[in-house]
Design a protein that fits this description.
By secondary structure, the chain is of the alpha/beta class. The protein has a single domain, classed as BirA Bifunctional Protein, domain 2 (2-Layer Sandwich), CATH 3.30.930.10. It contains four helices and eleven strands, in the order βαβββββααββββαβ. The two termini are 23 Å apart.
Length: 230
């Protein structure tokens, strides 16, 4: 895979248009790519996104996207990996693709000291136990640290996965993240993992490249929510 960073901050609409153009123009021999980006503040609504899940956007723009899922937030301190992958060439289907992406994030987080990272049944993405304070070891809830939203067109994927690194998390309180009322959202910094955005992005890309490679194991199969497929 070709892995590259886009200039930061990357404007969401322009990046989305570029992904669509790349996917429309690619042929059977076009190399797969991972685009790493840090967006300016933006809320995005998926294909089935309900506007009522945007509670108070303040001055943050809201963009209706063609990815799967509901509403999420992108902003400084979050790395997004847009995966431009030919599924037909890779030799697996959408459900396994989603599992592989989630597993790559889970494996990365485990190596960063978060071995409790896992899936949540029926809700795509990756979650960690919260609170994490040693003074309160009981687990009160799962908190989302990585959001997933994809599109598949003519057997090729675009959009991808976001990992919260060190963000101002308050905008997540202005929405129902991924359509879930009161869903807590955390980042690596709040989980005690101090890592720079560029390092986190480079690691995420390498884990994705390894996990998505044809012939590599998919990890424990879950039952992810359906992706948007055209």
């Amino acid at each position: 895979m070709l892995i590259r960073w886009l200039p930061r901050p990357a404007e969401y609409q322009a990046t989305w248009d570029a992904m669509k153009a790349f996917t429309a123009a690619r042929g059977p021999d076009t190399p797969d790519e991972i685009w790493l980006v840090e967006h300016g503040p933006v809320f995005t609504l998926g294909q089935a996104g309900k506007p009522e899940h945007v509670l108070a956007p303040h001055d943050v723009p809201v963009v209706k996207s063609d990815r799967g899922g509901q509403v999420t937030y992108h902003g400084p301190g979050q790395v997004v990996a847009y995966v431009l992958l030919d599924l037909k060439r890779a030799g697996y289907f959408v459900k396994e693709y989603v599992v592989r992406v989630e597993q790559a994030v889970i494996d990365l987080l485990a190596d960063l000291g978060l071995p409790d990272a896992r899936r949540k049944p029926g809700a795509p993405g990756v979650y960690v136990d919260w609170p994490r304070s040693p003074a309160s070891p009981e687990v009160s809830e799962l908190a989302k640290i990585s959001a997933l939203g994809i599109k598949v067109h003519r057997g090729c994927t675009y959009h991808g996965v976001a990992l919260n690194v060190a963000m101002d998390l308050s905008p997540f309180g202005w929405i129902n993240p991924c359509g879930y009322v009161g869903l807590r959202t955390v980042d690596l910094a709040s989980c005690g993992c101090k890592i720079g955005l560029e390092e986190a992005g480079n690691l995420l890309a390498r884990y994705l490249e390894r996990g998505l490679a044809a012939g590599s194991p998919a990890g424990a199969l879950a039952d992810p929510a359906p992706a948007a497929v055209e």
